[in-house]
Specification:
- Helix 5 crosses helix 9 and helix 6 packs parallel to helix 7.
- This protein has nine helices and 14 strands.
- By secondary structure, it is of the alpha/beta class.
- The chain has two domains: 116 residues, NAD(P)-binding Rossmann-like Domain (Rossmann fold, 3-Layer(aba) Sandwich); 145 residues, Rossmann fold.
């Protein structure tokens, strides 16, 4: 069992013929992901070979879905074209769109997110500016390395890509059900709360690691959700405890206003609802080990 991405997921890649799209398609295939094709309107009707696996290239997401039964798209399209790519995925009503692209204008993210809501939110969007989603031993959609950790019973949701990888490595002897990198931009599709709800409902996830960072109020809102809805143990980490006051650090969403959005404020909000929060990723992993034991 995993959330959103399983061994049965059929994945296409928007931008499959580009340098990033082709590189990570090869990696996803090597990880056992069922990649069934990709899109590039200028190369529709051709095929691309990946170490002996030949994948068809389609003009549109809708055409790819019709021909392959795809239910997941991973988007490796440059920032200027990302909004159009996501809108195309939404129009096709593909269930899951993973937007890897970094540097997407916030206005574009707001536009395609609003468009998705207007269309009934039939497409779950993860990202933009995210590493994607991995269900170890089953499927891998994005750029998360597939060999860090085996399958297990911890769920992970993280704003940070590199901290996603580190936490997977720290707890590799226990393993994960699904790891979701939601991205750190000011406007993202899937949130901590979405992942927390999915992990709470997943019978094969026993505990949850939530990684946040300074800026915004997403972690405080997640704390309220945990208090009301989550019965499984949650362990947290907030990146930015040592960030200098008044500085914008890391992701575009990491903007502090007064005391709101600081690591200490987020830590306090989470601990108030029973979430154990580590001061470092290693301490957070240790807290999770205590939970799992």
């Amino acid at each position: 069992m995993a959330i959103w991405l399983t061994k049965d997921s059929k994945v296409i890649v928007q931008g499959i013929t580009g340098s990033e799209g082709s590189k990570h398609t090869r990696r996803m295939l090597a990880a056992g992901t069922n990649v069934v094709g990709g899109t590039n309107p200028r190369k529709a009707g051709t095929t691309v070979d990946f170490d002996g696996t030949s994948l068809p290239v389609f003009a549109t997401v809708a055409e790819a879905m019709k021909e392959t039964g795809a239910d997941v798209t991973v988007i490796f399209v440059p920032p200027a074209g990302t909004k159009s790519a996501v809108v195309e995925a939404i129009d096709a009503e593909i269930p899951l769109a993973v937007v890897i692209t970094e540097g997407v204008p916030v206005q574009d993210s707001a536009a395609f997110w609003a468009y998705n809501l207007d269309k009934g939110a039939k497409t779950r969007i993860i990202g933009p500016n995210c590493p994607g989603i991995a269900s170890p031993g089953a499927s891998n959609a994005g750029i998360i390395p597939a060999d860090i950790t085996p399958q297990g019973r911890i769920g992970l949701v993280s704003k940070s890509g590199t901290l996603t990888y580190q936490m997977m490595y720290e707890l590799r002897d226990i393993g994960f059900s699904t790891c979701v990198g939601i991205g750190g931009d000011p406007i993202i599709g899937t949130t901590h709360i979405d992942a927390l709800k999915a992990f709470q409902d997943d019978p094969d996830t026993d505990a949850i690691v939530m990684i946040g960072e300074i800026g915004g109020d997403a972690e405080e809102r997640a704390a309220e959700f945990i208090k009301a809805n989550v019965t499984k143990p949650v362990v947290g980490y907030i990146a930015g405890f040592t960030a200098p006051p008044g500085k914008t650090m890391g992701h575009a969403g990491a903007i502090i206003s007064g005391s709101a959005g600081t690591a200490d404020a987020k830590k306090a909000a989470l601990e108030a609802v029973g979430v154990k929060v580590g001061k470092t990723p290693s301490e957070t992993a240790r807290l999770m080990r205590e939970v799992m034991s």
